[in-house]
Amino acid sequence: MSESSEMPSRPRRKRGIYLLPNLFTTGTLFAGFYSIIASSQDRFAVAAIAIFVAMLTDMLDGRVARLTNAESDFGIQYDSLADLVAFGLASGLLAYNYSLHSLAGLSDTLGKLGWLAAFFYTASAALRLARFNITRGGAVEKKIFLGLPSPAAAGVLVGFIWVGADFGIAGYELVIPVLLLTIGAGALMVSNVRYNSFKDFNIGGRVPFRYILMMVVAFVLIVIDPPRVLFIGFLVYALSGPVMALKRHRRRAARER
């Protein structure tokens, strides 16, 4: 008997293309592409809103695929490509078109720094998605994410730009915080900082009443002031990883002492 015949057969993922989840993925791709068009026309608030719409469709395509048992290799790869366009390329270009391009008016070196920062962010999103694909389904990525997820990184960067555009602030006035957020969000995506994935939250199961109340309050706050509430929410999530890592480091140091 050959060695290969003694090995247990691995269940193969279903082949084929499922319509419903891939429609949502196409919505993510469309929203990202539209954001690029809008930011190139200096419609920065519209471009930011398109990215957040992409987040919604990105969340729905995975949920729909799991609920309808319609996951496929094609859908996984298509989803990653759409995420790269929306949360990598479109978000990086939005940061550059809104603010980072103004560095070129100060000096040629700073001008290069502006578009290189946008490229670093986009490349980091690509690397983050590639790492997620090869670890998908593993024990590590079930309850936690290694590195800031690309939609959350886009939420921090794009959310800040949306707040600035909503206040009518010119991009050159916010070039320093946009530059720091662009580089910081990119660095967190390729880091080994752990983030809660919330995959253990069962939306179809029973939950305490306070969870429903919290969801209602969150919905009301978002409706009242979408740019600021969404930006703060994603910023808190982005900071939660380093804060928890620091707490774990301090606990280990205390035990060693």
Distance between termini?
56 Å
The low-confidence parts are 1-14
Mean pLDDT: 86
Helicity level, as a percent range? over 70%
Q: Can you tell me the number of structural domains?
A: 1
Radius of gyration: 20 Å
The CATH architecture comes to Up-down Bundle
Summarize the structure.
This protein is mainly α and 257 residues long. Helices cover 73% and strands 2% of the residues. The protein has a single domain (16-200, 208-256), classed as CDP-alcohol phosphotransferase transmembrane (TM) domain (Four Helix Bundle (Hemerythrin (Met), subunit A), Up-down Bundle), CATH 1.20.120.1760.
Write structural notes for this entry.
The chain has one domain: Four Helix Bundle (Hemerythrin (Met), subunit A), CATH 1.20.120.1760. Helix content is 73%, strand content 2%. Helix 2 runs parallel beside helix 4, helix 3 (44-67) runs antiparallel to helix 7 (150-166) and helix 5 runs parallel beside helix 8. The chain has a two-stranded antiparallel sheet. By secondary structure, the protein is an all-alpha fold. It has 10 helices and 2 strands.
